[in-house]
Every structure is written in C-alpha cells, then in structure tokens.
Specification:
By secondary structure, this protein is an all-alpha fold. The protein is built from 4 helices and no strands.
C-alpha cells in the first residue's frame, strides 16, 4: 500500500529526529521529564504504523493508525510544552512542528479514506 509506505517513511524519519531531540534535551538542556515523554510518544507513532501493516482486518488497521494518531497528538503536546517552557527555540520548534503536522494530517486522511469518509 503506497500510503503505508509513505507513513512508514515519515514515521521513521520523525522517530530519528525525536531520538536526536531526546539526546539534546537530556544531555545539553538537562531536561529529563518532558524529553522522555516526547521520546516515548514520538517513537510509538511508527511502531503502531508498523503494526498496521499486518492488520488482521480493516477495523484492526484503522485501530492501529488511530493509536498512531493519538500518539502523534500527544507528541505535539509535549513539543508545545518544550517550546513554551524555553527548551526549544522558535526555529527548532517550527521545524519539528512541521513534521508532526504532516504526520497528523496524513494519518487523518488515511483513516478517513479507510472508513469511507473521503
């Protein structure tokens, strides 16, 4: 499935960015709580997308991508907090915010299409 490949690619690239961000926040900024949260939710997006590739039904597929969407929204929340609390500069935040917004938007489109809503 072409969308599945796109989502997998987007989520892997994003997860790698999140891993680098975690290291930066942990080592350079000495931030240990929110960085761990964004690491967990940001890497979970792709894990659920990977699981969706072997979904047992359309409902299972939608469920896995819906979990990915929830994790993406949680990740955005943590990124906003990191930005608003001064751990991420405007430039750093805008760059990674563009990536998470792309993932969220793409997941919404795929889920709606699979549900027959588009």
């Amino acid at each position: 499935m072409q969308n599945g490949n796109l989502m997998e690619e987007l989520s892997i690239k994003f997860a790698l960015r999140v891993i680098k961000l975690y290291k930066y926040l942990f080592e350079e900024k000495k931030e240990h709580i929110m960085s761990k949260q964004v690491y967990r939710s940001g890497t979970s997006i792709g894990a659920n997308i990977a699981e969706s590739k072997t979904a047992q039904s359309d409902a299972d597929f939608i469920n896995k991508l819906s979990i990915s969407l929830k994790e993406a929204n949680e990740t955005k929340y943590w990124l906003v907090l990191l930005h608003e609390s001064g751990y991420l500069s405007d430039e750093e935040f805008q760059s990674i915010e563009n990536d998470i917004n792309t993932i969220i938007g793409t997941l919404i489109i795929i889920i709606k299409k699979k549900k027959g809503l588009q």
